[in-house]
């Protein structure tokens, strides 16, 4: 899909054109599903988040101003949909304070040379709070305070969740590296 075609679809979607909505849905489904899966870790939930995100996209398309690229704007919708789903599942997110987290050096932030698909599978196995914070921080580039605001938890809890996610991944990666069955 090129920029001109995308612009035409956006304009048609603003007018309620169901064919344009379907074409945009087909073109962006894989993009949306991949992001949702990174956050939810489960196929069924990723499907639901993807559908909810498209619903929000089509009902709020008039709010798209063009300041961001359309994909960046849609990505924000997907991430916020994942956050909303997470919040609705937990009455009170885990408040793991930083003093309980093991301090990690910068060297633990880098992972060994492991197959990317295996790493994605491991991230999916993290507890939801860890996975959400790690995705927002390491992949989406949110700052600690932004994550804390979005999830309505303390900055210490965000840092703790990220540190514990990294520790768990590092442990799993070290096991995988020793087994070398997943190493490239």
Structure description:
With 184 residues, the chain is mainly alpha-helical. The protein has two domains: 3-89, RNA polymerase sigma factor, region 2, helix turn helix motif (Rna Polymerase Sigma Factor, Chain: A, Orthogonal Bundle), CATH 1.10.1740.10; 98-179, Winged helix-like DNA-binding domain superfamily/Winged helix DNA-binding domain (Arc Repressor Mutant, subunit A). The chain is 68% helix and 0% strand. It has eight helices and no strands. Helix 1 packs across helix 2 (18-40) and helix 2 crosses helix 4 (70-89). The radius of gyration is 18 Å and the shape is globular. 30% of the residues are buried. Residues 92-112 have low confidence and may be disordered.
Tell me the series of helices and strands, N- to C-terminal: HHHHHHHH
Shape: globular
The Rg value, from CA coordinates, equals 18 Å
Provide the CATH superfamily of the largest domain. RNA polymerase sigma factor, region 2, helix turn helix motif
The tally of structural domains comes to: 2
List keywords for this structure.
184 residues; mainly alpha; Rna Polymerase Sigma Factor, Chain: A; Arc Repressor Mutant, subunit A; 2 domains; 68% helix
Question: What does the secondary structure layout of this molecule look like, with pairings?
Answer:
Elements: H1 3-14, H2 18-40, H3 43-59, H4 70-89, H5 116-124, H6 128-139, H7 144-151, H8 155-179
């Amino acid at each position: 899909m090129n920029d001109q075609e995308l612009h035409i679809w956006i304009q048609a979607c603003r007018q309620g054109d169901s064919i344009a909505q379907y074409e945009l849905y087909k073109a962006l489904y894989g993009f949306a599903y991949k992001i949702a899966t990174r956050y939810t870790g489960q196929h069924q939930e990723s499907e639901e988040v993807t559908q909810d995100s498209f619903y929000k996209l089509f009902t709020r398309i008039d709010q798209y101003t063009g300041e961001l690229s359309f994909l960046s704007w849609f990505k924000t919708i997907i991430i916020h949909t994942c956050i909303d789903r997470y919040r609705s599942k937990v009455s009170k997110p885990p408040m793991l304070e930083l003093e309980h987290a093991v301090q990690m050096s910068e060297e633990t932030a880098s992972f060994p040379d492991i197959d990317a698909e295996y790493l994605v599978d491991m991230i999916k196995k993290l507890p939801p709070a860890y996975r959400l914070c790690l995705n927002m921080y390491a992949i989406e580039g949110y700052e600690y305070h932004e994550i804390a605001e979005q999830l309505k938890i303390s900055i210490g809890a965000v840092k703790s969740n990220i540190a514990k996610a990294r520790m768990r991944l590092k442990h799993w990666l070290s096991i995988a590296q020793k087994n070398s069955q997943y190493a490239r």
